[in-house]
Amino acid sequence: MQPAALQERAMITVSGQDAQEFLQALITTDLDLLEDGEAKPGALLTPQGKILFDFIVTRDGTSIRLETGTDQAEALLKRLTMYKLRAPISLALTNPARVTVRFEAAPGAYRDARFAKAGQTVYRAYDTEGETAGTDDYDRLRILNGIAVSGADYALQDAFPHDVLMDKNGALSFKKGCYVGQEVVSRMQHRGTARRRVVIVAAGTALPETGTPLTAKGRSIGVLGSVIGSSGLAIVRIDKAGDAIASGEQILAGDIAVTLTLPAWTGLDFPVEAGEESA
C-alpha cells in the first residue's frame, strides 16, 4: 500500500519544562507510558466524561504534539490556553498540518498505537513531502480493524471514551491519577456499565450512507459510521445487538441485512443476556 496524505489535520505543539506535567493532568493518555517513536490516541473530556476533543499524541524532543482535526484545532487551542494560566509552557498551532500515513517504517515516522493493538503496522509522518496515494487503503484498513474516528463515526461531546474503544486502545488511563472527566470513565470501567461499542459491519452488497440507522426487531440499536463498499463501522448498543444475534433476528442497515462483529483485538463479546457485557 502506498503512503496516503490525510486531509484536514492540524497540530498543536506544547513546549516548555512543564509540558508533560501540564498535559498529564488534563488528557486521558498516560504520557509516562508514551515512548519515543510512538503515536498514541488521546482525548480531552468534558467534566461529564464525554469526548470534547480527540487527537493523536507524539513526542518531538522535549515537546509534546497533539495531532487533531482542523475543525477542532482552534477550540482545542483555546481550551488549553484557558488551562495554561501561568504554567511555564508555550502553545503553538499549525493549521493545516501535513500528515502522511505509511505502512512501513520510515525515518522520523511514529508507529500508530491504535493499529498496533490490532496487529497492524501503520506509521504517521509529519512535514514530509513526496508522492502519496488516496486514503482508501488506509480507511479500509481502519474499518476492518474497528478503529473509529470522530466526525465519520461519532460526534464530539456525544460519545464516551468506552463507546469508541479508548479503554482498549491505550488512549484511556485508569492508573495515572486525576484528569478532566476521570471520575466518570473510571466509574464506567469498574462498574462495567459500557453498553455502546464500535462494531464492524459487513453486508452482501454496498452499505447505505453514513448516518443510516441500524435496527433489530424494528428498533434502533445504533448508527452506521464510516463506509467503504460493503464494509463499515457503527457504534451500537451491544446488549441489544447481542439479543438479536442470540435470537436469530435480522439486523438491518436501512433495508440491507448486515452482520456485526466486535473487533477481535478488544477481547469483547456480545452479551449473552441483556444488560451483561463480557470482556
Question: What can you tell me about this protein's structure?
Answer:
With about 280 residues, the chain is of the alpha+beta class. The protein is built from six helices and 15 strands. The strands form two sheets. A nine-stranded mixed β-sheet has the order 1-7-9-8-3-4-5-2-6. Residues about 275-279 have low confidence and may be disordered.
Briefly, what is this?
This protein is of the alpha+beta class. Helices cover 20% and strands 32% of the residues.
Helix-residue proportion: 10-25%
Mean pLDDT: 94
Largest sheet: 9 strands, mixed
DSSP strand (E) fraction?
25-35%
Question: Spatial order of the strands in the main sheet?
Answer: 1-7-9-8-3-4-5-2-6
Structural class: alpha+beta
Query: Tally the helices: what do you get?
Result: 6
What's the total count of β strands? Answer: 15
Terminal-residue CA separation: 33 Å
Radius of gyration: 19 Å
